[in-house]
Structure formats: C-alpha cells, structure tokens
C-alpha cells in the first residue's frame, strides 16, 4: 500500500487516525476528523482523483426526500449544510458551482405506496411538495407526457 500524501515510514508522521482510501466516504471522514483537530494520514492504492472508484464521474445526486424512513431526513439536512460549506470553500460559481439545487419529481397514482410514504414523510418533516393532476402535469412537464 502506498501513501498518497507524501509521507513514508521515515517521516515519522504522528497520526491520530489513519484513513484507508481517498474516495467519497474516506475523504469526508478525513475532512471532518481534521476539522476536529485530529492529525489524519490517508492511504490510497491509486493516485488522488483516479477513475477506478465509485465516486468517479461528472455528477452526483443527493435528495432530501427519503421516504424509506424519516430518520434519514435530519442526516440529509446536515449533509446539505456540509455541501453548502464545501461549495463556499471551493469558491466555484456559475455552472462551475459544486451544488445545483433542483426539485425532485415522483410520478404515480396517489395510491402508489411510495407516494403515500412520501406524503407521510412530507407531513412529519415539513418538506415542501407540489402536487400535479395529470392535465396540469402535462402542461408543466410537456416532455414527460
Ligand atoms: C456509477 C455510479 C453512480 C453513482 N451515483 C450516485 C449518486 O448520484 N448519488 C450518491 O449519493 N451515490 C452515488 N453512487 C454511490 C457513491 O458513489 C458511493 O456510495 C460512494 O462513492 C462510496 O464511497 P466509498 O468511499 O465507500 O468508495 P469509493 O468512492 O469507491 O472510494 C474507495 C477508495 O478506497 C480506495 N481503496 C480501496 N481499497 C484500498 C486499499 N486496500 N488500500 C488503499 N486504498 C484503497 C479505492 O481505490 C478508492 O479510491 C454512485 C456509484 C456509482 C458506481
């Protein structure tokens, strides 16, 4: 295994935490730990920003509406705050900005289980939702008719 941060065993780097991998989860963990004053040493089997990881690609989606369970929503609110912080730190603006806020779209009959779950989530967590009847939907989203 190779250190990717310029340390080798002779440097005598005194780490509080060693993080193996520099993908999404490891980078986030290393960032948060370092934010809390921990000395973090990271190891990556490839070079930084390599294209062999799950994180590779031009875009990622995150959504607030997790009908799977309301417990996810506070975690997601925190995740959105951290994305905003990351964007602020990056100082990228316009189309280069890191985070683009859009709405999410769920389509189905009102009795569809997932839409019912979303409805109860909406009520319990105060998420903003708009409902469209089929006729209005066709006008608002003509490409999805
Ligand atoms: C095509 C695709 C699209 C996706 N879209 C989304 C999305 O829109 N939204 C979303 O939330 N999630 C999405 N995901 C999932 C998300 O990318 C992964 O959940 C996330 O990247 C996982 O993070 P990770 O750190 O566990 O793994 P990775 O990001 O893959 O990072 C693991 C790192 O550890 C390194 N490593 C592994 N073993 C060792 C070792 N022994 N020694 C040293 N280094 C090692 C690897 O080289 C790699 O760099 C998508 C995944 C894929 C594949």
TrEMBL record:
Keywords, sorted A to Z: FAD, Flavoprotein, Oxidoreductase
One Pfam family matching this protein: DAO
Essential cofactor(s): FAD
Presence of keyword Oxidoreductase: yes
Domain (FAD dependent oxidoreductase) ranges: 16-107
An annotated Gene Ontology molecular function: flavin adenine dinucleotide binding
Iron keyword on record: no
Protein name: FAD-dependent oxidoreductase
Organism: Corynebacterium pseudokroppenstedtii
Source organism phylogeny: Bacteria, Bacillati, Actinomycetota, Actinomycetes, Mycobacteriales
